[in-house]
Amino acid sequence: MSSLTTNVGCCSDSGWLSSFFKQCDTPECCSGCCSALRPRYKRLVDSIFPTNPQDGLVRNNMEKLTFYSLSSPEKLDRIGEYLAQRVARDITRHRNGNVIIAMEAMDQLLVACHAQSLNLFVESFLKMVHRLLECHEPDMQLLATSSFVKFANIEEDTPSYHRRYDFFVSKFSSLCHNNHNDPDIRNRLRFAGLKGLKGVVRKTVNDDLQVNIWDEIHMEKIIPSLLFNMQENHQSSETPDSPQEETTPWTLAENCLRELMGRVTFGHIRSVIRPVLKHLDNHELWVKSGASHVFKVIMYSIQVSFKVLSPPKKNPEEITFQEKGATKNSSFTKESKYPN
Length: 340
What we know:
Blueprint: H1 2-9, H2 17-23, H3 40-47, H4 59-71, H5 76-92, H6 96-112, H7 118-133, H8 138-152, H9 166-176, H10 183-204, H11 216-230, H12 249-263, H13 269-282, H14 291-301
Helix pairs in contact: 3-4, 4-6, 5-6, 5-7, 6-8, 7-8, 8-10, 9-10, 9-11, 10-12, 11-12, 11-13, 12-14
């Protein structure tokens, strides 16, 4: 009896039963004395976290949570909201081990569940990714990007009318320009940023209800991020017509540009080419290096039906720029700064 009084006393300091329930939100605070009074979905979520976070996700309990989510899809939004609350608390308290476990659980639930109520669950998931991307710890940013990429590869059964990806475009673009002092961390963050941009494009390009990824405001962030990483390579690939092995940020950036140009429609070609020309102008890359390779990648990747053939010149190998400071024997022309 004395032990029960002690346990109850830890969460009933303010007096009445109503405050008792509010203060008992953390399961460890009262040694399980109130666990039976908590909603089942909360108990299932709490059970996937081990006593020692280094032990990782409790697999058996995760299977129970997944089965419960599939059996009661109307609880998905509450499960997502509760996991998001736990992540926010653990980030504040620097409990990175629990954050990793929560994100792994979210990833598994996203893959397993395809109910109509998944949209509300995704909102909680994106809040968690948003929160992690705002952290200054590279490991948390890498974790968030990895989860977002997994989510981007999932085909959702129901459309979303209110979801926005503006923050993710801006944040992933900034990661592509990361200048961390450690070269390894810098490359990993740039690589993650490029993967994130690729995921945003895949998630939005074929969904008319999502943000229009071809808008100028987005292309002026995405295209310079790709070209910035491509220009890091001093030795362009010899096969601009085929994807490269994604081992470095510049090879991934080149493949991202290929995929982007392969998805662009005729009405949006201008919104992609304009930022390319601006970037080459702003960084004076027309003469230095890389410009011809960029346009080769674009022309090889664009859909065949969108290519326009012009009458052949007398000597196609000797096409010169029409602007001051251009070199001869270039492989492409730049008739004007920007397309009409």
